[in-house]
Amino acid sequence: MGERSHSSCAAFSLVEAMVVVIIAGILAGAAAPLIGSQGALRERAGAAEVSAYLQTARAFAMATGEAHGVRIGRLEGEVAIVRISEGAVVAMSDLFGEEHAAMRFDSVLPGVEIVRATDGAGVADPVTIWFGHDGGPQVRTNAGVLVESPTRDCEVEFASGLIVRVRAVSGAIE
After folding, report:
1. CA–CA dist 72, 24 (Å, integer)
2. For the whole model, what pTM was predicted?
3. Quick one: 14-166 is in which CATH superfamily?
4. Which of 25, 91, 113, 133 is a plausible cystine mate for 99, CB 3.0–4.6 Å?
């Protein structure tokens, strides 16, 4: 009897290959919403960060009795807490006298974009949202000179449409 030689080659059957493709499709479909929601999470984090800066400036204004504000440079992507010192607008100092650095969105939250920021008079970019000693918002010039009480809410809008507001009457931040 002659020996038959069968060469043995390892290979996947068509069914096995289809199962792998289906599983890969399911995993990709499950991951896609997570990747898309990452941008929304960053936008919410950016709004929370701007809100925290506004709340900090408001708290410092009420605690010190001096006007404090948040400068928002939409084009620069910067947010910084400022105050008035000897008639000039300066960056807020920390407890050790060091200048409080501005937050840059492109380095902290890449992809987050502020598309509009307005103060209580409707002035836009760059804008400083000021708070007085009572915690209420104020309208001031770029040099920090008090002009008037706000006639409208201050707003910071992100690319997704998310808006952080400072209410004109109460100074409430939402």
Report:
1. 44
2. 0.77
3. minor pseudopilin epsh domain (3.55.40.10)
4. 91
Distances (CA, A) of 157 to 51, 52, 109, 162: 12, 15, 15, 6
Residue at 118: amino acid letter: T
Please count the other Cβ atoms lying within 10 Å of the Cβ belonging to residue 21: 10
**Do 103 and 91 touch, CB atoms closer than 8 A?**
no
Residue 124 DSSP class: B
Structure tokens at 161: 């449409």
Task: Report the alpha-carbon distance of residue 79 to residue 101 in Å, rounded.
Answer: 9
* Structural contact between residues 83 and 69, judged by C-beta atoms closer than 8 angstroms: yes
Locus of tokens 């840059």: 104
Q: Residues 99, 100, 106, 108: is their CA dihedral positive or negative?
A: positive
